[in-house]
Amino acid sequence: MIANTNRPYPKRPIVPWLKKYRNSPHRYSLAFAAYNAGPRAVTEFEWLLARAAGYEPASSLARACANLTRDVTAVQVSTARWVLDL
């Protein structure tokens, strides 16, 4: 399959501040750091909800969701780093 190179829009980086690191050997590490920031914030918020919940089953469920989010993100980033050999 041949990729369509006639784009009706300019090719832009997903994270604008990574543009200056386009040719840097550390560009993938910076991208992974930016990717990790989102799930880390979600995990922290879920742990905050778990601490604030007064009802034990809700607290346990929130902690389980936070741990699952953290673990899934760790597997994704670890796999991508292994594939890209970083």
Structural class: mainly alpha
* Percentage of residues in strands: under 5%
The termini sit apart by 28 Å
Q: Helical region count? A: 2
What is the overall pLDDT average? 76
Mass-distribution shape: elongated
Low-confidence segments = none
Q: Largest sheet, described in full? A: none
Q: What's the helix and strand layout?
A:
Layout: H1 27-52, H2 56-84
Helix pairs in contact: 1-2
What does this entry show, briefly?
The protein has helices spanning 27-52, 56-84. It is built from two helices and no strands.
Detailed description of the structure:
- With 86 residues, the chain is mainly α.
- The protein has a domain at 26-84.
- Helix content is 64%, strand content 0%.
- The chain is built from two helices and no strands.
- Helix 1 (27-52) runs antiparallel to helix 2 (56-84).
- The protein is elongated.
- The two termini are 28 Å apart.
- The relative contact order is 0.11.
